[in-house]
Design goal:
Helix 4 packs parallel to helix 5, helix 5 runs parallel beside helix 6 and helix 7 crosses helix 8. The N and C termini lie far apart (43 Å). It contains nine helices and seven strands; from the N terminus they run αβαβαβαβαβαβαααβ. The protein is α/β, with parallel strands linked by helices and 269 residues long.
Length: 269
């Protein structure tokens, strides 16, 4: 196992603090997931990614990842299969960044049982399956980092029109806190990163729905949204990625069971 980098060192180990670590980042073919995978690669980790987009293999080449697999997390077996593929490629998993695309925004009355079941498998069910699959190996190694990428929806407070996210992502945050006592003695941390409005295609989809529900143009809705963000801009995927990479480092072994909000101050303004 690699020894922790000396924080005063300015050599290669300091610039690549995750060298020797093996990471699985799910839903990493675009958006925040891709930014996280690229950041972990830049810090020296061997990174395996999953995605559903046809260009996932190209992303591997572009960011310098070690490999990829197709994983549709609406399918109950996808989590365990993704971990098996990553272990086959990397040998083990030291870092899990559990990320998924978001379920559709909708009025509550328009959601049926299939919508709820699909959202469960996509978000909470996949987090459970991935966690079950990686914990034994991490415990055996005596070190591990699990970061659940969620959103402020449900984790900080429910957001209008995002009922599926509100419920399922709140469950993921509870999962992170639930495993801390059992995972901690094995050197494993579990944290939640909850981005607020971030400039990604997913954010554009949500704004289009919310603008339509409010009967205003997307430009007008965006101006209204930004007025409530103290930094007066949406976050960048790279900013979220930097926070995730920090939580995966050697230096933060005592940070666990926490929800880390990154939303430009929106939820406290």
């Amino acid at each position: 196992m690699p020894s922790p980098a000396d924080p005063t060192d300015s050599g290669p180990a300091a610039r690549r603090p995750l060298a020797g670590r093996c990471a699985l980042v799910t839903a990493a073919s675009s958006g925040i997931g891709r930014a996280v995978a690229a950041e972990l690669c830049s810090r020296g980790a061997s990174v395996f990614i999953t995605g559903t987009r046809p260009g996932t293999a190209e992303v591997v080449q572009e960011i310098g990842a070690a490999g990829s697999a197709t994983a549709d997390f609406t399918q109950p077996t996808a989590g365990a299969e993704a971990v098996r593929a990553a272990v086959a490629a990397l040998g083990r998993i030291d870092i899990l960044v559990a990320n998924t695309g978001g379920p559709k925004p909708s009025a509550f009355a328009d959601l049926d049982a299939d919508d709820w079941l699909r959202a469960y498998h996509l978000i909470l069910g996949s987090a459970l399956a991935l966690t079950r699959a990686v914990l034994p190996g991490m415990a055996q190694e005596g070190w591990g980092r699990i970061v659940y990428l969620t959103s402020t929806a449900g984790v900080v407070r429910p957001l209008p029109g995002l009922h599926l996210s509100n419920v399922m992502r709140a469950g993921v945050a509870a999962l992170a806190q639930s495993i801390v006592a059992e995972a901690g003695p094995h050197g494993i941390t579990a944290n939640v990163v909850a981005p607020g409005p971030t400039d990604t295609p997913r954010r554009r989809q949500i704004m289009e729905f919310q603008a339509g529900a409010a009967g205003v143009s997307i430009e007008e809705f965006e101006r209204h949204e930004l007025a409530g963000v103290p930094i007066r801009r949406f976050g960048r995927a790279e900013e979220v990625a930097s926070l995730v990479a920090f939580l995966c480092s050697e230096e933060v072994g005592s940070i666990t069971g926490a929800v880390h909000v990154i939303d430009g101050g929106m939820t406290v303004a």
